[in-house]
Amino acid sequence: MNQKKIVSAYLRGLEKGNCNKILELFTNNATVSSPLYGEVKATDFFEQLFEDTSDSKIELHGVFVDVSDSSKYAAHFRYDWNLKNGQRVSFSCVDIFEFEEDSSKINHLSIVYDSKTTREAFNELHNKRIINERKLILCERKEGRNMTKHIGIVACSAEGASLCYRTICNEAPAQMGEHMHPDVSMHTHPLGEYMVHIRSENWQGVANLMLSSVRKLADIGAQFAICPDNTIHQAFDLVTSESPIPWLHIAEAVGQEAISRGFRNLAITGTKYLMTGPVYPETLEKFGISCKIPDKDDREKIDTIIFKELVNGVFMEESRLFFNEVIQKLKERGCDAVVLGCTEIPLLVDPNNCPLPTLDSTRLLARAAIKEALKEG
């Protein structure tokens, strides 16, 4: 099948809502970028699109090939989109197809349209879905089946996310009873997809992945979200403005603990993006707390340890001792506690054998989530 025929087959599948037929036209790692759903895997995009769609109609205006690059095609059409809640939105759309080199499959799809009217309808659909989920949860509470809020974990790296999850499940029983904890759901895109955007400091790209996760979590009943990853909190404000549910901020959980323990000058450890970024300085300033970071060479080595060892579940004694050396230097510069600001660092640094008192961002966020989940009303 030539590429123009693939575009035509795609449009037929889109109009008929045939997810399987459409995905057959894409490579296994294909991505889709759109104004409403952000940049996500093609499988995730079309599953979510057709979950939101009742039916649709397409009026094709034309299919065009890029004269400078024959692997790129564009389709211009009018899209009549019927949403599951009965709303109908009609708009002009351009889909840009990028085919894999020497392949008859689509590797990336960019969808372009004016999202003003579609976003209003889209948000109304998702808000109604969330309201219905919350009504169900309230009914369960009245019947005594569920007395806590549902926690949604937007995960990034496996080690940090699993530590956060385990902490919730292990520490909640002290307040809820044996083997009891709040409902917890987790979604994560691959760390590799996040790293593409983190390395280029494309925080909107990071935010799009986080929004993709939180929308899935909200759709299955999560009532608030947490993210056990310090670095991607740099996209936090971009996320919360579009999120269907509220969030807890990891650095705020750390700041509250620091105040309660009387700390005023914190050492920040984490990825190089976190240590040089605004997440902790801006948040801690609200608490009247100052912070310091390691010197450049130490930051680079810490970053290497995180991405070459810790996120892969590798914890070496040599690396633990290096962290202690760095923390000692920060103590000598006047710091009175150290923030373990990469959610894997608590798995390496031993608080009982550390030059400074530790503030474990992962476990502090998990405890804040338990506290929020147990709030009434």
Describe this structure in words.
There is one protein chain. The chain has 377 residues and is α/β, with parallel strands linked by helices. The chain folds into 3 domains: 3-121, Nuclear Transport Factor 2, Chain: A, CATH 3.10.450.50; 122-228, Rossmann fold, CATH 3.40.50.1860; 251-365, Rossmann fold (3-Layer(aba) Sandwich). 45% of the residues lie in helices and 24% in strands. The protein is built from 15 helices and 13 strands. The chain starts with a helix and ends with a helix.
What attributes characterize this protein structure?
alpha/beta; 13 strands; six-stranded mixed beta sheet; Rossmann fold; 15 helices; elongated; Nuclear Transport Factor 2, Chain: A; 377 residues
Largest sheet: 6 strands, mixed
Q: Class of the largest domain, according to the CATH hierarchy?
A: Alpha Beta
Summarize the amount of helix as a percent range: 40-55%
Spell out the helices and strands N to C.
Answer: HHEEHEEEEHEHHEHHEHHEHHEHHEEH
